[in-house]
Design brief:
241 residues; alpha+beta; single chain; 11 strands; four-stranded antiparallel sheet; three-stranded antiparallel sheet
């Protein structure tokens, strides 16, 4: 029933008063139920929103973790490739110039035995032609077998052609120790023959007693030559040791 107005100063009927209390009680109960229902709805929506956000955050974390895994895989592959390159059987070797130009100039009594000087190509080389050096003896700063290979950089007698020959030092040492004749440092054929032959250890000692050094592997005794020597480099591969 609706709320009944009671006039001020009048005596209210008990039934009316009780009815008004019942009405207010119903309204309070109804309001409380509505608040409860709304709270339940709000809590449900909060729960749904929380679940959605947790799902989105989890998904994004998975994406980030996936990206991190991909990056780590890339870095691992890169490290493996770097290791592979460092262990490659074909690294760029370290080279050391071996010819003792100062000693040779002193023995020949000249400022510089490199008598091929082409100003056009910039090539400067030793062409032999000094009797005291047997027209082509070569003195080294150290034992050539300290190196794995030799790179003999050479040119023609005019300094117009530049090339190189790679020699395994163990093989050269073996040939020089076996041969009583000449062994080639250079043997190339283009328009003309370019060569530089050196005598084996045994024969060198018999014809070069004055020039021959204590260590026979510091010295190449000229046998016959038809080119110029720019430099002889000792080569060592850098294996990251």
């Amino acid at each position: 029933m609706p709320l009944v107005e009671i006039q001020n100063g009048s005596l209210a009927d008990p039934d009316i008063v009780n009815g008004n209390f019942d009405y207010l009680d119903d309204r309070i109960t109804d309001t409380a139920n509505r608040i409860y229902t709304n709270n339940t709805t709000i809590n449900s929506r909060i729960t749904n929103l929380q679940t959605y956000l947790e799902g989105q955050i989890s998904a994004n974390i998975n994406v980030v973790n996936g990206s991190i895994d991909t990056i780590n895989e890339f870095l691992d592959a890169l490290d493996a490739r770097i290791d592979e390159l460092e262990e490659s059987p074909f690294p760029i070797p370290e080279k050391t110039a071996l010819i003792d130009w100062e000693n040779m100039a002193f023995k020949a009594n000249v400022a510089d035995v490199r008598n091929i000087n082409n100003t056009t190509t910039g090539i400067k080389a030793y062409g032999g032609d000094y009797n005291v050096l047997h027209s082509g003896d070569i003195y080294l700063k150290e034992d050539f077998t300290n190196y794995e290979r030799l790179m003999v950089v050479w040119c023609d007698d005019s300094g117009a052609v530049l090339n190189s020959t790679i020699i395994e030092t163990w093989a050269l040492d073996f040939l020089l120790s076996q041969s009583k004749g000449r062994t080639s440092l250079i043997n190339q054929q283009y328009a003309a023959n370019y060569y530089w032959g050196v005598w084996g250890y045994e024969y060198s000692a018999t014809i070069s007693s004055v020039q021959y050094q204590t260590n026979k592997k510091f010295f190449f005794c000229n046998g016959q030559q038809n080119c110029g020597i720019v430099e002889i480099y000792g080569l060592k591969n850098n294996r990251g040791e």
